[in-house]
Amino acid sequence: QVQLVESGGGLVQPGDSLRLSCAASGSAVRRYALAWFRQAPGKGREFVAAVRMGNTYYADSVKGRFSMTRDNAQNTVALQMNSLKPEDTAVYFCAASQTVITSTIRNFNAYAYWGQGTQVSVSA
After folding, report:
1. pLDDT digit string, tens, across residues 81-118
2. CB burial of residue 93 (10 Å; 0-12, 13-18, 19+)
3. Is 64:81 a contact under the CB 8 Å cutoff?
4. Counting Cβ atoms within 10 Å, is residue 82 exposed (0-12), middle (13-18) or buried (19+)?
5. Between residues 72 and 50, which one has the greater pLDDT?
6. Reduced to 3 states, what is the DSSP secondary structure of residue 108?
7. Count of alpha carbons within 13 Å of 15, Cβ hemisphere only?
8. Which strand (E) or helix (H) includes residue 24?
9. How far is 32 from 118, CA to CA, in rounded Å?
10. Which of 74, 111, 96, 73 is nearest to 4 (CA)?
11. Ramachandran angles phi, psi of 73, nearest 5°
């Protein structure tokens, strides 16, 4: 079992930055791939970024603006979001998987554990 708790969401203006954090706890959590997904109102859950076995993956829509880092000593992952746009508005979820592989890393149904989500709103 893995427990995930996100923090750091808020309301910002276009062009601003925001940093999300996810604290992971549970047995052998360091063996898990960790990811960020987001869900905007009326839309499905969308892949944002993931880290697995030292490799980091990004959605095309955030590449160059978002950066995901992992701190294995603290069992946390962070998502640094720069140059935010109104279309980045969504609830952001942290997810964990022990079985995900590279070909499925962008699939939300490959992740068994989810946090409660944190709201990010980008508006002028």
Report:
1. 999 999 999 999 999 999 999 999 999 999 999 999 99
2. buried
3. no
4. middle
5. 50
6. helix
7. 1
8. strand 18-26
9. 21
10. 96
11. -65, -35
